[in-house]
Amino acid sequence: MELGKIIEKVVDKPLNKTDKKLLVNREKEFELINLLTQYQPYGIYGICGETGIGKTTVINNIEIPFHTIKITLTQRENQDTILYDILYNLSLVSEKDIKIAKEIKEWILEEISYIKGFSLGISFIGNASVGSQNQKAPRFNYFKAKEYLNKLTDELIKKYNKVIIIIDELDKEKKRDVLIVLDSLKLELQKEGLIVIVSLPYSIYREYKNDRMHRNESGNLENIIKDIIFLREFTSSEIKEILIKRLKEHIDFFDDKSLELIADFSDGNPRDAFWITQKIIFEALSQKIIRIDEKLVRTLMRNIVKEYLNEISLTEKQKTFIDESLYPGSREEIVKKAISKNKLPRSTAYSIFDRLLELGIIIEQNGTYKLSGKVKYLYI
């Protein structure tokens, strides 16, 4: 069926430079990255945003006039493996130009082979036959790796004057683990002529904002990360534009209202838009529907939300905040409307707002609060 061909158009995958024409409204972020790499002398910088917002897509499409090394982390079990992964990737791409790089690469491979081989041998032989006194498991030589990283970055700077290292996939780790890794590598990565750009979890951006405004008593993120480029959520019209660019000649299979509903459901996140679009297409195929309209989309979204979010239980007073007329606005504006409309005590209204924000029923986008495009299907 012709409708089935659309599935591949809305697969959620990072865009490469060949697909750059599908990007929507990220010019400001690219400009900030270019200015940062051009004028900042050194430092660790973050690219932050919600999961699915397109951090890897932005990283894939960074074009700057300096020697740039892009690393996609695949070994993230712990602090040691992350360091080894970074060092191995740097040495791998630099071995033709930097003499010490080949030595480092071979050392890492030997280390990994020895450690993995030991672990495999223990598993194969069985713990019962191995004496604990004379079979001490080898560990990563963390400090030797740090020393090599320091030497390699020095050599890269010496050769190219300015080097940009971009590290992707670190945002998949817990905030605490990411900060431990970056803090432990400050001396090796913060040096004149070296800019390090790292994808970071969204939770770090929230903490970084508080640190910069001195709202955290013990915060020291600004000592690790010089600045963060935040990838904001897309507006509904931008999500709609993303879908139109992806669907291209297949756009006539969707009526205009259905695309608006998909954009609203996504809450500004392309991954959510692609996911629900695929769900809708599969439903249309199963029902042998040849054109997707508002009725099909509304019905399917309502069913999906009930299936995924049926554990959310609200009081009657909390449900009064599931009212589109209250949004969008600031926290104070929304609470004021709710108090006026529902005759709620002030403290109760603020408590309800904060609870719904915690549950994800109310979401923040670019400093403004709105009702989630997903959760409204539970009650509206």
UniProtKB/TrEMBL annotation:
GO terms, molecular function: ATP binding
SUPFAM superfamilies: P-loop containing nucleoside triphosphate hydrolases
Entry-linked InterPro entries: ATPase_dom, P-loop_NTPase
Coiled coil: none
Residue ranges of domain ATPase in the record: 24-271
Annotated protein name in UniProt: ATPase
Source organism: Marinitoga piezophila (strain DSM 14283 / JCM 11233 / KA3)
